[in-house]
Amino acid sequence: MKNEVYKNIYQYEIPLPNNPLKSTNTYIITSEERNLIIDTGFNIPECEEAMMNAIEELGIDLNKTDLFITHLHSDHSGLAGTLHKKGISKVYAGVIDGVMINQMTTDEYWQKFNDYEIMFDLKRDNVSFTNHPGYKYCPKEQLDFIYVKENDVINIGDYSLRVIDIPGHTPGHIGLHEENHKLLFCGDHILGKITPNITFWSFDTDYLAVYFESLKKVYAYDLEYVFTAHRFIVRDHRTRIDELMEHHRVRLNEVITIITDKKLSVRDTAAKMKWELRAKNWDEFPIPQKWFASGEAMSHLEHLVSIGKAEKSIEDKVIYYRAI
């Protein structure tokens, strides 16, 4: 149903069937000249139906509508190709994540998950990238994105939306800041109630540290509305950022305790961490959640290595960590 969360800004919940996230918040900004959709939902019929119902309810013309993708995850980018075919000509994305979205349409991109399966020690669980939501629900055709960078401005009606770089959740996560109205469309950078997944992307960068820096960046902003991509709108972003920082402080201490006096694989570390899932033990974790939990464990383990509190070793291509 139509939910105007600010003047000419509408929030719609796009359902994510059989997914713990439950839904993605899509935001649609309307004006007489052009409209802007922010994020899309999965590339599945249920999400497409919900999106088209929202477009029909608002009575907007897709030929006068643009699309902004905050980051590469399929619950945000999945319908980009579909909406492009239905009339949207401009699809905005950041350079880093936009390139990766197009790479996700290739088998080569997903084959590297076979290496992660070994490296994380997940081969013991018979996981496969074919069960990963990113693989199942991403766009299937490459897109000719309009790449945007920090401080680029998109004008929609009375709003001047400035692109900001807020990496961490993904390597090239971006958002839109409206300074005059004190608004931020932040994708998954800050979420109400739930904590954004910070995962492993490469050995070249400590992405948990990158995420901390992006949180500090947004902390300094004067904001009244933070339009998040899941759950509820955040009104006090500094309190929420403090909560997120504390969450990761506790998480890092938890991981240090787990790997103290013992050498553990990523998989075995993740299995001992506390997760808010309806599963009695690691064996009951759905395969997609084993991917996400292992990725998050890895990002914390790699951060501990980068700050000199853990060491790693490799045996038969499996990576192990121990506190020092």
From TrEMBL:
Tell me the keywords, alphabetical order. Hydrolase
Q: Name one Pfam family in it.
A: Lactamase_B
A Gene Ontology molecular function term of the record? hydrolase activity
Domain Metallo-beta-lactamase residue range list:
23-230
Task: Spell out the Gene3D superfamilies in the cross-references.
Answer: Ribonuclease Z/Hydroxyacylglutathione hydrolase-like, Winged helix-like DNA-binding domain superfamily/Winged helix DNA-binding domain
Hydrolase as a keyword of this entry, yes or no, is yes
CDD domains, A to Z: TTHA1429-like_MBL-fold
Tell me which domain of life the UniProt entry assigns to the organism this sequence originates from: Bacteria
* SMART domains listed in its UniProt record: Lactamase_B (SM00849)
What InterPro entries is this protein classified in?
Metallo-B-lactamas, RibonucZ/Hydroxyglut_hydro, Sec-metab_biosynth-thioest, WH-like_DNA-bd_sf
PANTHER family, per the entry: ENDORIBONUCLEASE LACTB2 (PTHR23131), METALLO-BETA-LACTAMASE SUPERFAMILY POTEIN (PTHR23131:SF4)
Report the protein name in the record.
Glyoxylase-like metal-dependent hydrolase (Beta-lactamase superfamily II)
